[in-house]
Specification:
The complex is a heterodimer of chains A (420) and B (82). Chain A is built from 8 helices and 39 strands. Chain A has 420 residues and is of the alpha/beta class. Chain B has a single domain, classed as Non-ribosomal Peptide Synthetase Peptidyl Carrier Protein, Chain A (Orthogonal Bundle). In chain B, helix 1 packs across helix 2. The chains are: A alpha/beta (420), B mainly alpha (82). At the A-B interface, helix 6 of A face helix 2 of B.
Chain lengths: 420, 82
């Protein structure tokens, strides 16, 4: 039996997080969805199936076959890449069956005969045929349908992941003038990590995990559950409220609550970020702040692919795509989506939707300096953190640029019209 | 549209965006050094030229144009290609 982790058409509902990342490369808790999915799989050769424009980049990032049609030559276990398994979830199917959750296939075992019957090279049609013809059962599993689902699940997943990783104690440096409030068993400080004087780790509401070579500077307060990734720095005096996930090599200051920072992103200075997902290589200028609660306490509406969508949640912050940058003093409205590679400067009440690759300056959308210069900036930014922009990454960025051209033009056109 | 008409309209846009006196603008005027265009204003100029002449310019190429005279020629070329 072969095992295929796939992206379905709903990757679009996870934009802007998925412009240059697969759905299973999204972060929640201590790691990515794919790390949790792989832990739930039985033995067998594993492969990935992703949208065409991202397959080269995916092959470079993962040591698995990508879009290999030979997977459809035998019995196959298909697994939705948007599945967020709990540590207890294990796939143990032995007969042909599909496990569903609210209309989504979560995983399913399909026998060779039917695989060959259903497969015609189109994954969407294949999944439709599976849904229609294979016996199914409904299970209350977690599937990420929208970006805000990640924020809702993250505090729970952080607690699960602390148990899943199974580590506690202090292997790195913990200054004698730092303190733990709550159960010290709920703290893990990995080798090479450093906690400076007057830092408070509060485990009253959940565990705190500080990964290798991370550094927490004096007077920061970190409330659990919280994960601080490798080489990430928490700046002096930071107020890290509960429910945060910081990936590797981030710089985090100011106040952050129930948010996910992918990796290599900076929020160096004061300002509040809450109930938000911040992509990779994002830079938030000093005092950048987002609202995560409306003044009338009604549920937050988000422009999902430009369409107003009710999240059903009272607390929703911002979702910011990879390589986007904000100026000092940027104030994001409740439920803002900022695409990838935007350049956003402060000014009045900002729009709730920023198409990718736009510049927002003096309350107007602009084209900015053009894609080549944006890519050049990305190269400079990545080099500062010892990362190279690969040819595959650049190709996918260029694809995403073309893909978003129409909505970008429309925003610029409307912006010019209203500013006249 | 002839060169003179384009030049007049280019100058009008520059006055609006940069707030400089029209008599100070010559075809040799450099946007940054002589007319004081800051980086954001350069972007606004490109947008304003696109609107004024109903054309679309490649932003990275347009931003390489350094003087008023070159801008007039650049726009003229775009209009001829329309």
């Amino acid at each position: 039996m072969k095992i295929l982790i796939y992206e379905d058409e709903k990757w679009r509902d996870l934009l802007p997080l998925t412009f240059i990342k697969c759905v299973f490369e999204i972060r929640c808790g201590y790691d990515l969805l794919i790390d949790k999915i792989v832990a739930a799989l039985p033995e067998g050769e594993k492969g990935l199936w992703v949208r065409d424009y991202i397959k080269g980049l995916t092959a470079k990032r993962h040591n698995m076959p990508v879009n290999d049609t030979s997977f459809f030559d035998e019995d196959i276990l298909i697994v939705n890449g948007r599945w967020l398994p709990s540590p207890a979830d294990r796939i143990t199917l032995s007969e042909e069956k599909v496990v569903m959750c609210k209309g989504d296939i979560v995983y399913g075992l399909i026998k060779k005969e039917r695989v060959q019957k259903f497969w015609n090279g189109d994954i969407t049609k294949f999944l439709s045929a599976v849904k229609e013809h294979i016996p199914s059962k409904e299970k209350p599993l977690r599937v990420i349908s929208y970006p805000w689902d990640l924020i809702i699940y993250n505090p729970f997943v952080l607690k699960e992941d602390f148990k899943r990783y199974g580590k506690n104690g202090i292997k790195g440096e913990f200054h004698p003038a730092a303190a733990i409030v709550g159960d010290a068993k709920d703290v893990y400080i990995e080798e090479g990590a450093k906690v400076h004087p007057f830092v408070v780790l509060d485990t009253t509401h959940g565990p705190v995990y500080i990964d290798k070579d991370a550094e927490v500077f004096p007077s920061a307060r970190i409330e659990g559950p919280c994960y601080i990734g490798k080489e990430t720095q928490i700046m002096p005096g930071a107020n890290i409220r509960e429910g945060n996930s910081f990936g590797d090599v981030c710089r985090i200051g100011g106040e952050v609550e129930e948010s996910i920072f992918y990796s290599y992103s900076n929020k160096y200075h004061d300002g509040f970020i809450g109930h938000s997902y911040i992509g990779e290589f994002v830079n938030l200028g000093a005092l950048t702040t987002n609202s995560d609660l409306k003044n009338d306490y009604s549920s937050v509406c988000i422009y999902l692919n430009g369409v107003p969508t009710d999240t059903g949640s009272l607390k929703v912050g911002s979702f910011i795509g990879d390589h986007t940058k904000t100026s000092i003093g940027t104030l994001f409205n409740t439920g803002t989506i900022a695409g990838m590679m935007c350049n956003i400067t402060a000014g009045g009440i900002l729009p709730k939707y920023f198409p990718s690759f736009t510049w927002y300056v003096n309350n107007k959308f602009m084209k900015g300096y053009g894609l080549d210069m944006m890519i050049n900036t990305a190269k400079i930014v990545m080099k500062r953190r010892k990362r190279e922009l690969t040819a595959e990454e650049e190709e996918v960025m260029r694809y995403a640029y073309n893909m978003t051209e129409e909505e970008r033009k429309e925003a610029i056109r409307k912006s010019r019209k209203t500013s006249k | 549209m002839d060169y003179k008409e384009i030049e007049a309209r280019v100058k009008k846009v520059i006055v609006e965006v940069l707030g400089v006196d029209e008599e100070k603008i010559t075809t040799d005027s450099r946007f940054v050094e002589d007319l004081g265009a800051e980086s954001v204003q350069s972007l606004e100029l490109v947008a304003a030229f696109e609107d004024e002449f109903d054309i679309e310019m490649e932003e990275d190429v347009a931003l390489q144009v350094k003087t008023v005279g070159k801008a007039v020629e650049f726009i003229k070329k775009h209009l001829e290609q329309k």
